[in-house]
Amino acid sequence: MNYIKDPYRIEEKSFEIIGKNIDESKFNEKELLIIKRVIHATADYDYSNIIKFSDKAIESTLYALKCGSHIVSDTKMLEAGINKSALKKVGSEVKSYIDLPETMEISRKCNITRSMAAIEIAIKDEKNKIFAIGNAPTALFRLIELVKDGMVYPSVIIGVPVGFVGAKEAKEELKKLNVPYIVTEGAKGGTTVAAAIVNSLLYMIDR
Fold first, then answer.
1. Please, which domain of life does this record's source organism belong to (predicted)?
2. What does the alpha-carbon distance between residue 35 and residue 18 come to, in Å, rounded to a whole number?
3. CA distances from 62 to 4, 122, 173, 180 (A)
4. Residue range 121-164, pLDDT digits in tens
5. Separation between Cα atoms, residue 34 and residue 100, nearest integer Å
6. What residues act catalytically?
7. Which of 30, 55, 106, 202 has the greatest number of C-beta atoms within 10 Å?
8. What is the rounded distance in angstroms from the CA atom of residue 17 to the CA atom of residue 38?
9. What pLDDT, on a 0 to 100 scale, did the predictor assign at position 206?
C-alpha cells in the first residue's frame, strides 16, 4: 500500500487541501491558521463560516501566553488535548477544576452544575486569564456573569461549547461582552474545536 507516513507531511497536505476548499481571503494570517487547524481536526468546512474573532482576540491571547498566564479548561478531556510541550515552552499551564472535591461540594450545596462551580473556583487564581470552554454552556454562562459582576477580567474567552440547549445562547451573550473572544456560532463546537484553537495559538509562539 502506498500512503503518507510522515506526520508533518500529512498535516501539511491536509492544510493544502483545506486551503483549496475555503475562501482564505476572508481571514488574516493568524485567523487562517486557527481556521485550518480546526477544520483539520474536525473535517468540517463549516467552521470557516462560523468561527468568529473579536477585535484583537488573537493578539490578546498571545500576549497573555507570553506573560505566563494560565489556561482554564472546562473538561479534563480538553486539558488532555492541549499540547503540553508547547505549553511548557511558553511557560504556561492548563487546568480543569471539574473533578476537585471543592467543585463537587459547591455544586451540591448551590444546586448548580459542576461546570459552573469549577469556573467559580478557577477565577480565584489570578494567573488564570485564558478560558477555554468546549463542552458546557453553563460554564460559559457563569463566566459571563462573573465578568459582568467584575469578579474576573479574562484576556480572552474561547467559547465554543457544543449542543442544542444553551450553547448558541451562551455564545451570543459572550459576543456582547467587552472581552476578547473566539466563538463558534450556533450549536457546533466541542472539546476538539477548543483544543485545536488553543494549540494553534500556542504554535504561533512556539514555531
1. Bacteria
2. 9
3. 33, 20, 24, 12
4. 999 999 999 999 999 999 999 999 999 999 999 999 999 999 99
5. 31
6. 40
7. 202
8. 13
9. 64
- Name every residue whose Cβ is closer than 8 Å to that of residue 134 and which is 6 or more positions away in sequence: 73, 74, 75, 78, 158, 160, 161, 162, 189, 190, 191, 192, 193, 194, 195
Query: CA 108 to CA 203: how far, in whole Å?
Result: 39
Domains and CATH numbers, the chain: 51-206 (3.40.50.10230)
Total residues found in the chain within this entry: 207
**Model pTM above 0.90:** yes
Whether residue 118 contacts residue 98, with contact meaning beta carbons closer than 8 Å, is answered with: yes
Query: In the structure grid, which three cell numbers stand for residue 29, read together?
Result: 494570517
Question: In 3-state terms, what secondary structure has residue 45?
Answer: coil
